[in-house]
């Protein structure tokens, strides 16, 4: 894309075919030979010649994605590189760096169950634990992600996968009228001994729907 500099931009409406209807716009477009050509101020609704359309689009895109956010991006980049800078960044692809910083979205829910740890009266064969996993696996994807956020503070998983997450489910002395409680620092779920799948599903859903906390994503 050619380097362009836009001094101001207004809302743009492009028709499906030439001529194009454009809003009021003023800009300076740098051409390939290094000469800058300034487009005049257009009236609120004007027809731009088709040969200028690509130049206008280039200028507008550059303004939105570069010029208009330059100040904020520069500040973010400076802060990020102070914490995470160095030659090691050159080893990562963008997708790998994102996974390292905010986690992965490669969910394996069966692995989450297989690597879970149980405390108190609970074990993998306890009736309440079985009801919990039956209920959980029936949840749609967004609700499962909401559970991860509720339990761990993030709806993403570590870069090494679900196995490295290793949630803990422990029994409590609370009655069925109480909701599950999450301890995000330890990936720990306090789960009362619900006697039916319906009660467990209702209490867990209520906890997820009324949860307020923090997210790392």
UniProtKB/TrEMBL annotation:
- Give one GO biological process term: protein polyubiquitination
Q: Which organism is it from?
A: Pteropus alecto
Catalytic residues in the record: 185 (glycyl thioester intermediate)
Q: Which PROSITE patterns match?
A: HECT
Enzyme Commission no? 2.3.2.26
InterPro entries to which the protein is assigned, alphabetical: E3A/B/C-like (IPR044611), HECT_dom (IPR000569), Hect_E3_ubiquitin_ligase (IPR035983)
In terms of superkingdom, the source organism counts as Eukaryota
Q: Which Pfam family is an annotated match for this chain, by its short name?
A: HECT
State the protein's name. Answer: HECT-type E3 ubiquitin transferase
Q: Which UniProt keywords apply?
A: Transferase, Ubl conjugation pathway
Q: Start and end of every HECT domain?
A: 54-217
The molecular function terms in GO held by this entry are: ubiquitin protein ligase activity
Q: Which Gene3D superfamilies match?
A: Hect, E3 ligase catalytic domain (3.30.2410.10)
Which reaction does this enzyme catalyse, per its entry? S-ubiquitinyl-[E2 ubiquitin-conjugating enzyme]-L-cysteine + [acceptor protein]-L-lysine = [E2 ubiquitin-conjugating enzyme]-L-cysteine + N(6)-ubiquitinyl-[acceptor protein]-L-lysine
């Amino acid at each position: 894309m050619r380097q362009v500099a836009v001094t101001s931009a207004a809302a743009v409406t492009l028709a499906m075919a030439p001529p194009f209807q454009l809003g009021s716009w003023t800009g300076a477009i740098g051409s390939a030979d290094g000469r800058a050509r300034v487009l005049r101020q257009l009236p609120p609704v004007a027809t731009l010649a088709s040969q200028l359309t690509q130049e206008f689009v280039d200028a507008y895109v550059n303004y939105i994605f570069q010029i208009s956010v330059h100040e904020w991006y520069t500040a973010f980049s400076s802060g990020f590189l102070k914490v995470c800078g160095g030659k090691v960044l050159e080893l990562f692809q963008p997708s790998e760096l994102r996974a390292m910083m905010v986690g992965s979205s490669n969910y394996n829910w069966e692995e989450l169950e297989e690597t879970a740890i149980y405390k108190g009266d609970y074990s993998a064969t306890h009736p309440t634990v079985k009801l919990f996993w039956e209920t959980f696996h029936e949840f749609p994807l967004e609700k499962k992600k909401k559970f991860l956020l509720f339990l761990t503070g993030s709806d993403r998983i570590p870069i090494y996968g679900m196995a490295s997450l290793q949630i803990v489910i422990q029994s409590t002395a609370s009655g069925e009228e109480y909701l599950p409680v999450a301890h995000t620092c330890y990936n720990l779920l306090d789960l009362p001994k619900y006697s039916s799948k319906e009660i467990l599903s209702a209490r867990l859903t209520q906890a997820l729907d009324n949860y307020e906390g923090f997210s790392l994503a």
